[in-house]
Amino acid sequence: MVQGFKEFILKGNLVELAVAFIMGLAFASVVSTFTDVLMGFIGKVGGEPDFGSVKLAGVTVGLFINALISFVIVAAVLYFFVVTPYNKALAHFKKTEPPAAKPDDVLLLEEIRDLLARRPQV
Questions:
Q1: Domain 2-118 is of which CATH architecture?
Q2: Where do transmembrane segments lie in this chain (predicted)?
C-alpha cells in the first residue's frame, strides 16, 4: 500500500499539476494587481473605478460589471503574456523528427505497383 502511494505521489503528471497550481497562485497576485491598475485607468477615463454601486432599473449590476471587466483583463493578460509566448517557444524548440524509413517489403510492393501501372494495357 505504501509503495502504491509512493508511485502515485511521484507520478510526473501529479508533480507537474502541483507546480502549475503553485505557479498559478503566484501569478494570480500579479494579475490581480495588474487588474487593479487597469481599473484605475478605466476609472480615470470613465470617472468611477469601482462600478459596484451602478444600478440599472433599480437593480445593482455594478458587481457583475466589475467581475466582467476583471475577467476580460485576466483573460487578456493570460493570453498575451502566457499563452502566446508559450506557443511561440514551443514551436521554436519543438524538434522535427525525420520521416521514418519505409520497410523493405513496403518499398518492394510500391515498386511492383509502379511497374504494373506503367505496363501497357491489352
A1: Orthogonal Bundle (1.10)
A2: 12-34, 54-82
Percent of the chain with pLDDT over 70: 90
* Across 93-102, average pLDDT: 79
Q: Could you state, in order of their start, the residue ranges of all structural domains in the chain?
A: 2-118
Rounded Cα distance between 113 and 116, Å, is: 5
Cell of 7: 508511485
Whole-prediction pTM value?
Answer: 0.49
What residues have CB less than 8 Å from 50, skipping those under 6 apart?
A: 39, 43, 62, 66
